[in-house]
Design brief:
The protein is of the alpha/beta class. Helices cover 35% and strands 22% of the residues. Helix 1 links the parallel strand 1 (2-8) and strand 2.
């Protein structure tokens, strides 16, 4: 059995705080057997992690990936054998046509996953759900999503679609790593192809929600790095609300969540 966190951001994301080495060290310390580094619109974090793992050879699986911003939300590309060509044509905060993203992920040998698809809505375009390979069922930051049914909606969409199911923390800072995961019935020595196949079979997905203030922390990093001073008033109001929710409602955002698929 292995446990993987399949959604983590490094400093290669405009709103991430962690060095790639820090992510790998925290994953080992928290009992994970593998991670996917999924920075915004770039595989740079994954490529750096591969170089580190080749040099040090720790007992950790690295699934190369990225999180692409599209005109229909975020799409994770996992098991990418190479950077997507579109990475050269898009800014860190740019939006891409979702069909082009799904196409290039496949051409790079990867799989496409809808990331936190119901964070701000309750339905999806049918052609989008049909086109991707799977759904991220648990994301630790959805515990305080605008749509309070975001996790349940993702679960229902995944049951409807079948295919690949994943889970991850969506970590942008150290405290979040490992708060979302998927468990697969394969050996720690399994190769990437075996792991990819296992994501379509029996598995468990779950975790524990992250406190709302982590969103404000990552947004503060975005404002600083992208020089988005015009967003400061909205950021301050949302920040106060997130800190308040973090203090008053820990039983809401911090509750454990788990789902199991017993057959493909």
């Amino acid at each position: 059995m292995i446990r993987l966190d399949l959604h983590i951001h490094s400093r290669h994301s405009f709103d991430g705080s962690m060095r790639v080495e820090t992510i790998l060290r925290l994953a080992l310390r928290r009992g994970l057997q593998g991670v996917a580094i999924t920075d915004h619109n770039t595989t740079a974090g994954s490529m750096e992690a591969l170089r580190i793992l080749e040099a040090l050879n720790p007992p950790l699986i690295l699934i190369p990936g990225a999180e692409y911003t599209t005109d229909e939300g975020h799409i994770l590309g996992l098991f990418l054998k190479e950077p997507l060509p579109l990475e050269k044509r898009v800014s860190p905060t740019g939006r891409l046509p979702w069909r082009q993203v799904v196409k290039e992920i496949r051409e790079a040998g990867g799989i496409s996953i809808l990331a936190h698809p119901f964070q701000r809505r309750r339905d999806l375009p049918p052609d989008l759900l049909a086109a991707v390979d799977g759904v991220e069922i648990f994301n630790a930051r959805l515990a305080y999503a605008r749509n309070p049914f975001a996790l349940e909606d993702a679960w229902e969409a995944a049951r409807q679609k079948g295919g690949v199911w994943t889970g991850g923390s969506d970590a942008h800072g150290p405290a979040e790593v490992g708060r979302g995961w998927v468990e697969l019935p394969v050996a720690p020595s399994a190769g990437l192809e075996e792991i990819q196949d296992a994501l379509k079979g029996p598995l468990r997905v779950g975790g524990r929600g992250s406190p709302p203030f982590v969103e404000s922390a990552s947004q503060a990093r975005r404002l600083w790095r992208m020089k988005e001073g015009h967003r400061l008033p909205r950021f301050l109001l949302k920040g106060v609300w997130n800190v308040t929710r973090s203090c008053l409602y820990p039983r809401v955002w911090g509750r454990a969540w788990e789902k199991e698929r017993r057959s493909p």
